[in-house]
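Work package 3, deliverable 3.1, input record:
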Amino acid sequence: MSGFIRLRSITGKLLVAILAVFLLAMAYQYAAFLESYRSRQRLTLALQASVTHAAAAAADDTLKDTIVELTSAWASEDNRTPKHRKSVLKALLAVHPDWINAGLIDTREKPVSSTTANSGKPIDQHLAGPELATEPTVSPVVTEGNTRIFVVSAPVSAPGKDAVVAYAVVSSEAVLTAIKNTVGRNSVVRVVDANGDAVCEIGPKSPGRPVAAASALVSTPEESEMTVRLRSADWRVVAHDYGNAIGESNQEWLPRAIITSLAAAMLALMMGKHIANPIRKLSRAAAAVAVGDLRRRVVINTGDELQSLAQSFNTMAENLEQHERDLRTKTRVQQTLFELAGTITSSLDVTRVAKSITDALSQHFHATEVVVFGRNDLTDKLEPVPVEAGTEVHASTSLTRLAEHAFTSPSALSIPSTIAYPGGVQESTAVALPLVVGNARVGVLAATLTPGEAWDTELKNRLELLETFASLAGIALHNAYIHGRTEDFMKMLNSHRRVTEAISSSLDLKQVLHALVKTTCEVMHAKACAILLSDQNGQLAVAEAFNLSKDFRDKLNITPGEPWTGVAFSEKRTIVREDICSDADLRLREEVEMEGLRGFMCSPLLAANDAIGTINVWMAEPYTGRGLEVHLLASIASHAAAVIANAKLFGREYQIAETLQDTLKGDVPARIGRLTFGHKYIPALDEASVGGDLYDVVTLANGKVALVVADVAGKGIRAAVHTAMVRYMLRGFLYQWPDSPASALDLLNKAAINYSDGHVLVTVFCAVIDPETGWMTYANGGHPPGIVIAREGKQLIHLYRTGMPIGATEECCYQDRKIRLEPGSSLLLYTDGVIEAKRQGSMLGIEGLEDILFDNAGLGPIEMAETVCRETSDYAQCDLKDDIALIAAGFEK
Amino acid sequence: MEEACLVSVRDGNILKISGNVDFMSSDKFVEMLAGMIDEERAVTIDLSEVDLIDSRGLSGLVAAYMQARDSGVDIRLSGASDSLSHVLRLSGLAPVFGLAPAVVGIPRQCPDRSTLRRQEWRMTESVTLAEPELVAVLRDMAIEAARETGFDADALLDVRLAAGEALVNALRHGSKSPRSRIRLRCMSCPLALVIEVMDEGSGTGSQPNGDAPAGSCGLGTKLIKATMDEVEYPQTKSGFSVRMLKWTAEASEL
């Protein structure tokens, strides 16, 4: 069925059911109707039979009576006179109103006499005249105007003797009346004569015509007609008695069936609705619950299974609602905890963490007093952590004691107490929770909790919740502590790095000391700083000071062992005085007070376990620090000692190198033959390094002039030594090969590789010029190209390298090249400091040098050397990173 | 190396030219030639003492030749040396002057350029202000480099022609201001000579020079291509550059 009808709604199914009920009711109605119709039909047939027989009997009786009347009236008066006969006839007519006429025919008389009661009545003529029958007869019906009449005749004399026949003309009304009295009004009865003409009939206007529907449904008219033959005449009685009764029911069964079916359907509909409505309610409620409306309930009071279903549903919804409420509560609690965790871990500052812990407890746990105790690393004691920087927290004694207990106890402690005050009684609980991270006890969280309006009922009495919070707080506090320590360490490291950077930036002792005192003062936030170094006499004197008056500096002359700087120096330990003004035996009290110095620290400078001096730091405020600064100063001191020692040593080395190089530059003659010379050397700004640039002008044995410019890699004494080596070896080789600088370079290369430790790398430009003709032979060992300035400064010729740098590879073979210096042209040789001069990352380059030379055409060699140096220095904005050495030779016209 | 300047001597209807007919001197002789064409019915140009002729000189000569022919003057070249005929043939102008066209030779089989990487290079570089006199100086430097490379006389002539044309182009098209410079860089190894001419212009095409005889630019480039083995125009950051390569006889033996 469900497969047959897939209806989505109960209403639809209901409608189908109702339709079915309707059709079933209709069918039943029709069956019932058929049954009743048949029984009624049987009844009608029986009735009809009885009616017909009754009618036949009545009609028969009427005819018999008429015959009897006729015969009896004439039985004794055979011979009466015609007059007599007439009166008898008239008497008969009078007695029988239905008789229209009566007569007597006597065949004995000749002619045959005929007497009638109403002579001349035309009716008689219609009658053929009764035959002289021996038996009473009834004639067929004749219609006379509006009246149907028939003749009854009977022999009144003895049979066979006389032939007298009496007759009566009778109206059919006589028969009708007789029948009417016997049959019901509704019966349809017809009396017909032998010819089939109707004698009389009773019933509705159209007798014998049953309703077509009924006839179709029930039977044919012939079957329902009933005919009874009369005994006294050849007449028949035909009855149709079923017509009206059955026809009426035929017409009315359909509307009635419809009405009853409709009623049944309505009833079914109502019943259906009665069942469907609660189901729909349930369904809507279930849908509402499904989308989250857990408060939805269903009220069904049908008292049946639906009601119990609704109750179950309500129970389920209630459970769900309860469940959801629980879940929500849990979520809220968790969320609160989560938010609190976020808040208290949002900062890494101990004070801020304490503040947020306090705030969280006040807000969500309604704590009146919250104190966060932290463990002091140094004293290993509990101390309240301030919630604002620079303030102190005063914890009540009871809370402090509870906290101390909790610090050593394994779990939380809580003491309920009741405080009575004028307004009433307040319940409160003092709680102390140890803050534990791993195995480490970080501190204690102590609070007094009181219920109040802001009391979060969900958090109420939930010590375990507090414990969870405490574990979070412990982590936050621990992190903050660690971070603080790391910060301190970082700060110290950073300070140390700054100091190191400052003092490593130079190798000059004076600069190192200056940077040291300045930076130390800055990083330690000190008022003043000084470095005292021991002199030849063992006395400590100020070598460099920052922010100290000259007067004080001069007076600060200390004997070892004298407090406190002397003590630090001789005992090689760092001394800290919180406030030197409080020292009784302060030697320079007046000066110290004038300078405004309070806190004091002094650390010895130890180089190779020897104290070479001290570093002193004074502060404007008494020193209250945790000792971090002391460590910092000690570490600065140890580093500074090494740097100072180095700088002292380096100072010596630098002096040596400088002296060496000064002697190496030598003198460049102003003129040899037609050649004039200009030269220039600019050391790089970095004074600590002595570069390896060299230039040399030598007159050779054959009268030619050798020009050499070289750049020895490296700095300092080693470079200076190499420079000297290159210079003098090259002089020797050139002297030997005055026409071939390439050969000289070959020899130099081999010497540099074989006779030095292999760390010599030199770029060299070597030119040999005939001072009379201007012919020049040159060899370029990896050096920047020399430039010939020809044609009045309009043409530059680059003299590129003809071999590798000296010391690069033994395989190298240098080439000589020749070029003639036209009269008026010049040669410029330089080191890479020129073309590598930098400005904002871009180099001057050979093109830049070309620009300088083109722009300053027509200069003599001295001016040219000056100009190129000046322009290069300008380009680099006076910040040359490398030495510049250049030599210019002009060939006069 | 002293170059003979152009000397044009008119002797009746004969114009005798000696020395170099190049970008500096061609105008002078073209002028003189124009004057002669106006006056004479037949003109003979005696080239027997001409040392060198460049694209500018050639185009001047062609222009004069055309003008003469248009005005019904009979113009004739005489005494063209082998090298001069060579240039005329290279330029494709030989038929104009009634000379036999160049014999189209088989293109030389060039060695692979990767062989150049392993070579020991000698480099000569000079930069000058963009002035005509200095162009000749630079050209001489190029010839000197070619000589050091070991080219024979014919090849030297080719190098001279090509370097001259490249330098003249640089002078004409690459000099934006009196301070503009021309850079010549010669790199030589036993296998080849590379000559690079750099200027501060943007190439011949974009800076047409109004007074240059029509077709001379194309002629110059054509001559360079005809005389050097490989020509390329590398992009430089500050100007236009032409790089020419000529393989040596040693290279062709490879």
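DSSP finds 21 helices and 34 strands in chain A.
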